Amino acid sequence: MATTAVSEKDDAGQEQRPPARPRRRSGWWWPYALLAPAVLFELVIHVVPMITGVWMSTRQLTKFFISNWTAAPGVGLRNYQVALDFDAAVGEALLRSFVVTCAFTVLVVLVSWTFGMAAAVVLQRSFRGRSGLRTLFLVPYALPVYAGVLTWNFMLQRDTGAINHILVDNLGLIDDRPFWLIGSNAFWSVVVVAIWKMWPFAFLMLMAGLQSVPQDVYEASAVDGAHAYRQWRSITLPMLRPVNVVLVLVMFLWVFNDFNTPFVLFGTGQPASGDLISFHIYNATFLTWNFGLGAAMSVLLLVFLLLVTGIYLLITNRESRRA
Amino acid sequence: MKTRSLRASAVAAALLLGMTAACTSNSDNADDSDGGATDGGGGGGGSLTYWASNQGTSIDNDKEVLTPVLEAFTEQTGIPVELEVIGWNDLQTRIQTAVTSGQAPDVVNIGNTWAASLQATGAFMPFGDEEMDAIGGADKFVETALATGGAEGEDPTSVPVYGLAYGLYYNKAMLEAAGVEPPTTWEEMVSAAQAVTDPATGVYGLSLASGSYTENSHFAFINGAQNGAELFDDEGSPTFTEDGTVEGIKRYLDLMQEDEVVNPSNAQYDNAALAVADFATGKAAMILTQNNAGATITANGMPDDAFGVVALPAPSDAEDDIASHVAGINLSIFTNTDNKDGALQFVEYMTSPEVQTQLGRPFSTLPVLVDTEATFTDNTELAETFTDIYNNRSAPLPLVPAEDQFENTVGKAMNQMFATIATGGTVSEDDVRAALQTAQDQVQASVG
Q1: Which residues, 6+ apart, have CB-to-CB distance to A37 below 8 Å?
Q2: How many domains does chain B have?
Q3: Co-location of B419 and B309 in the same domain
Q4: Rounded CA gap, B107 and B167, in Å?
Q5: CA dihedral B431, B436, B439, B443 (to 10 degrees)
Q6: pLDDT of res. B44
Q7: Does any domain span residue A23?
Q8: Spatial CB neighbours of B30, under 8 Å, sequence gap ≥ 6
Q9: Cβ separation of A52 and B416 shorter than 8 Å?
Q10: In Å, what is the CA distance from B35 to each residue of A15, A68, B102, B107?
Q11: Which region among A97-106, B21-30, B66-75 has the lowest average model confidence (pLDDT)?
Q12: With an 8 Å Cβ cutoff, are B267 and A82 in contact?
């Protein structure tokens, strides 16, 4: 280290000399200085709260201690035991919520991606009204989540909602007014709303990705007699692979962690069929004032997401290396 | 290489987003919760911050009603009061956050059933002899009302400000048209409701806020108490699965399930005002609601003389004819207030006979003071009925720290059971017992 510092000074002293050894370049610290604020805020905003969360998960942080929560007694891993004891009430409910969330995530990511891909491919060609449609498709993404989901909440009401008005009163498809926000239908409601909210993001990303696919590849394949589907499979999909790998992962993490949608859609009356895991943890924490247990559940969720992400990256990296 | 680094950074960003969601808040720094906090809102300088609960027809209505009252206080004492009115869906979370962070108002409204639970956090100032004297002495309050101020045998950490009780409101004309008398027993209530119910025209005998966990939990308590059941044992551990509670809850659920006198749509009513609106607009002949419904009934255009009130009836073979819990709103002072004297003056003012009389009407509440007449209605019969229920036929919800968890777990379980019934399923007594067992386990897990 000392020698480097000395040679730094040398460099500074002999500015006119052409740089002979690149490792002694001046201003080596510049990138670090530029990154420092980001690293600092990263630590303050994410890493420290995360570590606090892990610490909290080993405490019996109930209402008796929340006004002075550093005094909460340690309980080791007991909170984890409670959360993972699937035969008891708390663990069983967590497991059920986890299963619901997995089904929800798979559906939402799959459908959002399909919609996004279809719209991006269709809108790749130039035609009248294309930019208008692009803007229209992005509206759900641009709307504030609360406003959007609250509107869905109104539309899905049993007696006064637009959905039942159309299905029952206008079209006469069903005789009985179904409930959309309680009972088993609530699952489909939250899936539909989440897709509505998520697919424009897939559309946006894939549309951007498509811009980088050179047009002449398509032209060449057309000369060879490839049809639209073949072009999509053999050109579009492989060329979009890097975008897709990131897109699917990001969507997975967002959808799995989705809190706003169930929170705004269901309010305090969360139905079992729409009991998504972030919302579940929030309820388990705030309703029983058991913040230690809630933190333990959060850490478990974090570990699960890290595992999935790690495995996903391992697989996709290996495949891209093979390709 | 390029794609990989792009991917890596995207992954990093995504993961961090995930972690933020995973580690929910509560990282606020609560280091000086026990002393000299300078953050009592209001901006110091002897001012006070007051969080009021929603008592009137809307939050704006509350502000309109309270502002002149608070201005009069400022004139008397020179202490400015900064008012924030908070809706019921948010109040508990807001108080939790205030307790955790120490960023609290000076004086706050709490649902009196939370008193013992919030007392356990240690965030509220106990009203010892000295503090009690400063606000006019303990004996100015109705005894049962003051009893809700905290756990038995400890200095209360809250004092009553608005008194409420449940009653059975009935539409006089509708019952008369069906040829039935105002009910005095549960069985009579059910048959009266059946006589009125006509799903084809959308008219039902009763309207309930079946999607509101607080309302549901109150009826779990009242119906269970009528059967002689207790929700907690002497150690404060939950005993939700007692037969009396199970049967009481089943009886309440059956209003929708077996008796079919409640519109299944009520399963989505997450706010008592929705049920009250059905009553006021003639869609339901009866409602079980607290006396503060008066403001909403009037706002919906139903004249005062069109309805009557009787005590919520108990079954004819009930062990106890309890008709309500001691409902109401209490005032608490946060321990870390930087203006304790001002806060005490404010509590004294809010619980003075003048202010009680002044606020009783717009908020439709019962006075919490002895020897003060109910002013929430001109109808003396109504006032007498409610005063009688409040003073003689009410029992406090269990005064234990885990009480709020009872409301949350049992109330929400009842939301689910109503949802099952409304969507065509059935809920048997065993189902109720299983749900209560789950609720009990959840509460037990955090009681320790």
Answers
A1: none
A2: 2
A3: yes
A4: 30
A5: -160
A6: 42
A7: no
A8: A66, A67, A68, A69, A70, B100, B101, B102
A9: no
A10: 59, 11, 10, 16
A11: B21-30
A12: no
Q: What is the pLDDT of residues A225-262, one digit of tens each?
A: 888 888 889 889 999 999 999 999 999 999 999 999 99
What is the C-alpha radius of gyration for chain A, rounded to an integer number of angstroms? 26
At residue A66, the pLDDT reads 80
Mean pLDDT, range B86-111, rounded to an integer: 89
**Can you give the pLDDT at residue B19?**
42
**Contact residues on chain A for B10, CB-CB shorter than 8 A:** 246, 249-250
* Parallel, antiparallel or unpaired: strands B284-290 and B166-171: antiparallel
- The yes-or-no verdict on residue A117 having pLDDT over 90 is yes
Could you tell me the CATH number of the domain that includes residue A164?
A: 1.10.3720.10
- Give contacts of B120 with chain A, Cβ < 8 Å: 63-64
Per-residue pLDDT of B15-55, as tens digits, reads: 444 444 444 333 333 333 333 333 334 334 489 999 999 88
| Residue of chain B minimizing CA distance to A82 | B445
Are A269 and B121 an interchain contact pair (Cβ–Cβ within 8 Å)?
no
Does this model's pTM top 0.90? My answer is no
Contact state of A67 with B33 under an 8 Å Cβ cutoff: yes
> Is B381 found in the same domain as B347?
yes
Q: What is the largest CA-CA distance in chain A?
A: 89
The answer to whether residue B33 sits within a structural domain is no
In chain A, what residues touch B445 (CB-CB under 8 Å)?
A: 82, 88-90, 288, 290, 293
Exposure string over B159-181, b if 16+ CB within 10 A, otherwise e: bbbbbbbbbbbbbeebbeebebe
| Pair B142, B328: CB distance under 8 Å | no
The pLDDT assigned to B216 comes to 95
Q: In this structure, is residue B442 part of a structural domain?
A: yes
Mean pLDDT for chain A overall: 87
Residue of B114, B268, B427 to mutate, testing the A interface (most A Cβ within 10 Å of its Cβ): B268
What pLDDT score does B42 carry?
39
Domain holding A136, by residue range, is 89-322
Same-domain check for residues B351 and B264: no
What is the reported pLDDT for B62?
92
From B21, B268, B439, residue closest to A278, measured CB to CB: B21
**Which pLDDT belongs to residue A89?**
83
Pairing of strands B48-53, B81-86: parallel
Contacts of A298 in chain B (CB under 8 A): 22-24
Domain CATH for B224: 3.40.190.10
Contact list in B for residue A267 (CB cut-off 8 A) is 89, 270
User: Do A288 and B443 make contact, defined as CB atoms within 8 angstroms?
Assistant: yes
